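Private note to self, pasted from the team thread so I don't lose it. Backbone tokens:
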């Protein structure tokens, strides 16, 4: 409730004022959350749990801020990503350095354990993605899993599953690409930090879009960057690449006009991926 104007705020989007309430539970709902019913409008929760009588399919289905479908489990992609990181970490504990050597991000280097040249520049492009779910140290995976759960839990419900999955892909890949371009060719890089920082960038854009108080968001982003550049052994390139890509893609996702929403959204995603591919090709040519 706005203490000055007395106008209620949407229960799902606290920064949005509204005069509409769900005809079933009487919660305040904004235009993004309103679902047509036989009488008035109902909220996504009532429709999702089957307690409402609204039309959940087609044009009347509840949509996220970015136009995705509202799901009963709004952290499914986050859970799958966390599960993947845990699975790979378990394999690392069992198989050891051999698996790390196969999956870690390396630009171009001679690996004495394998007795051969390895790296992205040698055609192993898969390392740009496998490194984003690879961890060796317990503190490293714990920090990233907390970030994925907390910040991903904020971002995924706002974007919807497919758009959120693309955000994670582009953020992680862009972080790896910047590390590939800037870091020394034989410097290894691994971890989901690029994805986490992409989610931080997305969170900042979403908070701005929702007209939330930006001061705590700006403080959190600033502290995250301070940690990036002051702690030893941190791949700042992956953090910065993920942060910038995540913010840019989220801006396109939430600002796209409804009439051409999907064209702009997936076009922006495709453009960022093409830029990543072009940068990788240029760096590979320079190294080889």
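Design output:
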């Amino acid at each position: 409730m706005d203490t000055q104007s007395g106008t209620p705020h949407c229960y799902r989007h606290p920064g949005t004022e509204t005069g509409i309430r769900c005809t079933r539970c009487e919660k305040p709902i904004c235009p993004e959350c309103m679902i047509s019913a036989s009488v008035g409008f109902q909220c996504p929760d009532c429709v999702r749990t089957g307690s409402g009588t609204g039309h959940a399919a087609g044009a009347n289905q509840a949509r996220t801020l970015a136009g995705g479908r509202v799901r009963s489990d709004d952290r499914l992609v986050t859970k799958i990503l966390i599960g993947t990181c845990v699975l790979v970490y378990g394999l690392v504990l069992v198989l050891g350095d051999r698996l790390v050597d196969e999956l870690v991000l390396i630009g171009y280097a001679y690996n004495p354990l394998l007795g051969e040249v390895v790296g992205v520049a040698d055609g192993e492009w898969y390392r740009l993605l496998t490194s984003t779910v690879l961890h060796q140290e317990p503190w490293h995976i714990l920090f990233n899993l907390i970030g994925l759960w907390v910040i991903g839990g904020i971002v995924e419900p706002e974007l919807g599953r497919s758009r959120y999955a693309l955000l994670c892909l582009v953020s992680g890949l862009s972080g790896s690409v910047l590390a590939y371009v800037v870091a020394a060719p034989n410097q290894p890089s691994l971890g989901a930090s690029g994805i986490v920082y992409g989610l931080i960038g997305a969170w900042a854009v979403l908070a701005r879009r929702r007209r939330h108080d930006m001061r705590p968001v700006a403080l959190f982003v600033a502290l995250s960057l301070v940690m990036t550049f002051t702690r030893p052994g941190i791949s700042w390139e992956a953090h910065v690449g993920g942060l910038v890509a995540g913010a840019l893609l989220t801006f396109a996702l939430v600002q796209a006009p409804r009439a051409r929403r999907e064209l702009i959204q997936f076009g922006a995603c495709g453009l960022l991926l093409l830029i990543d591919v072009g940068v990788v090709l240029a760096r590979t040519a320079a190294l080889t």
